[in-house]
Design brief:
Elements lengths: L2 H17 L7 H10 L7 E5 L5 E4 L13 E3 L4 H8 L3 E4 L2 E11 L2 E9 L9 H18 L3 H7 L6 H9 L4 E3 L3 E8 L7 E8 L2 E9 L4 H19 L4 H16 L5 E9 L4 E7 L5 E4 L3 E4 L19 E4 L5 E5 L1 H4 L10 H14 L4 H15 L8 E8 L7 H8 L7 H15 L3
Antiparallel strand pairs: 1-2, 1-6, 2-3, 4-5, 5-6, 7-8, 8-17, 9-10, 10-11, 11-12, 12-15, 13-14, 13-16, 16-17
Helix pairs in contact: 1-2, 1-4, 6-7, 7-8, 10-11
């Protein structure tokens, strides 16, 4: 390690030490002052808005100067390209030493970092990726307790039901060495009855999508209660049918049959690709195989949860193949109509995903563009919540570095070895090694 590398490593450690009592407003100035001393002048932090259409400057308590734009478009700007593709780009052909670097918390896209770096070898500068990774972690640790952050990334007034929904949702993108999950939900500021969830337990990925009756605050309460009840039962070791019955019981107790929710609950075993799932009045999942074939899954549906009919659900098991993409969605994405009365449809949804996957876009960017296209198809007004959750199972072997970068926008330094190390250690413990 040379002197520059040692100094930069010290700066990263100093930032961690300073972060414990740091507020979000103090983050930009603290990062900029520490980075400037090791050859990274004028570090600026831009964060994406809720719908990932704009990038807003997180200025905090720092005077950045009048020449720094307060916001940038995700579409049509170099900063936006860095956000979309998860790659480092020079600020402009005429700007020397200024670079845009994506900010990723795991695989979740938060925004971009503008960094001054002498020379043109920035893409090989692993220290820069480490700086961006640390800033993203610090940003994630501070934004949950900052109303300033919420005010910055919201472009319009949010309904109370949507406030509840977004507080309960997991990150929109998540990845391990063998699986990628990404989701979108619109209308972002008015969503009320949709909810999605995922979690891991050892070798099993748990998935769920809910669509509650109605489009009001009560629908939001129903969806939130259903999701919370599902998590509660799942975390106590309940299987899929026990979890579904628990959700139905809770909704029945609270609403006495006047409110209900449709749902698909699923478990994917990562080592084998066996998908176990159950359907309660919801649209069944589909699988996109080989980026060209759409496989329609089927399971006898039980009535929606909370109706009080007390009819048992059924379990279905399907075998996924390596590279399969599992698609869970709500009817707001397929049944909404344009002015001519034409539905977007399931074919429109799967065709869009197949076409844009062929373009080599990262999965989160494909879903962002899907929602943009969907909103444009309906002239920016949706009469129902629209949710899409996509899971890609790589198979029993880890992703290669180039695959990870293409799928999620992770930096090239994120190798299967670095990503899988914690999993390998846990497996060794589980196996008694």
């Amino acid at each position: 390690m040379n002197s520059v590398e040692a100094a930069r490593a010290q700066v990263l450690g100093d930032l961690i030490a300073a972060s414990h009592l740091m507020t979000l407003e103090q983050l930009p100035g603290t990062v900029a002052s520490h980075a400037a001393g090791v050859g990274w002048p004028r570090v600026l932090i831009y964060v994406a808005d809720l719908q990932q259409e704009r990038l807003y400057l997180l200025a905090g308590n720092v005077d950045v100067g009048a020449d720094v734009p307060a916001e940038l478009s995700v579409d049509g700007t170099v900063a936006g390209r860095a956000f979309q593709w998860g790659k480092v780009f020079p600020a402009s052909a005429s700007t020397t030493g200024q670079w845009w670097v994506p900010l990723l918390d795991g695989a979740e896209r938060l925004g971009v970092l503008r960094v001054g770096v002498p020379g043109a070898q920035v893409e090989a500068d692993e220290d820069l990726n480490r700086l961006a990774g640390l800033v993203a972690l610090l940003l994630e640790s501070k934004r949950g307790t900052s109303d300033s952050y919420s005010r910055l990334v919201r472009r319009r007034k949010m309904r109370v039901a949507a406030e509840m929904e977004w507080q309960l949702m997991p990150p929109r993108t998540f990845a391990t060495d063998r699986v990628l999950i990404s989701a979108v939900m619109e209308p972002a500021y008015q969503v009320s009855g949709d909810a999605f969830d995922y979690a891991l337990t050892g070798e099993t990925v748990h998935l769920s999508v809910f669509d509650a009756m109605g489009h009001d605050t009560a629908a939001g309460l129903t969806a939130n209660l259903a999701l919370a009840a599902a998590r509660n039962h799942r975390r106590q070791g309940a299987d899929l049918l026990e979890t579904a019955e628990g959700v139905a019981e809770i909704l029945g107790e609270q609403f006495a049959g006047s409110r209900y929710a449709t749902s698909v609950l699923a478990d994917l075993h990562l080592a084998t690709g066996v998908l176990t799932w159950t359907n309660y009045g919801h649209h069944p999942p589909v699988v996109i195989r080989g980026n060209r074939t759409v496989v329609h899954l089927s399971c006898p549906p039980a009535p929606p949860m909370g109706t009080g009919l007390n009819l048992p659900g059924a379990l279905r098991r399907d075998q996924l193949e390596p590279g399969d993409r599992l698609l869970l969605y709500t009817d707001g994405i397929t049944e909404a109509r344009n002015l001519e009365g034409q539905e977007f449809g399931l074919d429109g949804l799967t065709d869009f995903l197949i076409r844009h996957h062929a373009d080599g876009l990262p999965v989160p960017e494909t879903l962002r563009r899907l929602i943009g296209h969907h909103l444009a198809y309906h002239l920016g007004r949706l009469n129902d919540d629209a949710t899409v959750m996509l899971l890609e199972w790589h198979g029993p072997t880890p992703y290669q570095p180039t695959q990870l970068q293409a799928l999620t926008g992770l930096p090239p330094s994120a190798t299967p070895e670095t990503i899988a190390s914690a999993w390998a250690q846990q497996r060794a413990v589980d196996d008694g090694i």
